[in-house]
Amino acid sequence: SPISAPDISKCTRGTNLNTQQPLDVNCCPPVSEKIINYKLPPVKTMRFRPAAHLAGKEYIAKYEKAVELMKALPDDDPRSFKQQANVHCAYCNLTYEQTGDSDTKLQVHNSWLFYPWHRWYLYFYERILGKLINDPTFGLPFWNWDHPDGMFMPDMFARKGSPLYNPLRNPNHFPPAITDLRYFGQEAADQSKVIQNNLVEMYGAMVRNVSKLEDFYGARYVTGTKPDPGAGSVERGSHTAMHVWVGQATPTGEDMGNFYSAGREPLFFSHHANVDRLWSLFRGLRSGSKPRDFPDSDWLDSNFLFYDENAQLVRVRVADTLENEKMGYTFQKVDLPWLKSRP
Ligand code: C2O
């Protein structure tokens, strides 16, 4: 049966997945008795997600303001930056037991829940920010690391003193360092090939190596499945590489390179906005009779809990995530040079 929302009142101290030791932080959310089944609100105004490297001054100022306000919310407010970061930790660091199988822990990564779960996570994060600045059109910037012009840390995140800055990053990877979508801890021997290799990596993950849906989405994951049944192409490749590339300021990868701390990294949300965009692009590229997503209710009926922008605990379903426009946001259109980068 599909993964069902966890009982958050049974959240326990999680595991640091880089060290396999118990976490030294508690990332359980505030508990709430009342849970509402979430219905996508009718779309009145579309939110617009710009490419981070193309965003203008005014937009950046607005985004900085929103994150500043989120960081200023009290720690026990489920919409605060701290609690929002903990959401990621709680759903990956084995703090929840699965509903229906109390012996098995919930972990949304490395499985077919990767795209839909993160879509919901960003969805509410974005709506909370939009509400804080009173802007229903606010959309998160996406880090366009699949385009050569976006293959560096976006400048807005690299300014000391900005709420988007984070000192816990690899100091060698601030601009103008080129992002390496195949980075797993070693700098590429030939830096002049990195951009071309990045495009080839994207072509493989989006087109060439994804004939079956699982190849792209990740492996089936239902009640009783042990954590990490298998990641899809982007999750395993460029997505994880960028986590490691940004993080690594400490031996255990904080912030971005460790699951429990990744949500503390403001850049995380632009990184994942790009992953989210790649999901939409993938569906668009599947033409003709090729299925775009799993028809199984074991996937579509999977559900999770999040706090919405009004601090209400809501239950959300995978079935509602399939079209970003229906969720009220679109992405800036940019060229896809990797589409022509067949090796
Ligand atoms: Cu939830 Cu990029 O990991």
From TrEMBL:
The species this protein belongs to is Rehmannia glutinosa
> What's in the keyword line of the UniProt record?
Copper, Disulfide bond, Metal-binding, Oxidoreductase, Thioether bond
User: What residue range is the signal peptide?
Assistant: none
* Coiled-coil blocks: none
What range(s) does the Polyphenol oxidase central domain occupy? 293-343
Named cofactor requirement(s): Cu(2+)
What is the name listed in the Swiss-Prot or TrEMBL entry for this protein?
Polyphenol oxidase
What sequence ranges are listed for the domain Tyrosinase copper-binding?
79-283
Counting on the full-length protein, the chain here runs from 79 to 421 of 572
Q: Which family does it belong to?
A: Belongs to the tyrosinase family.
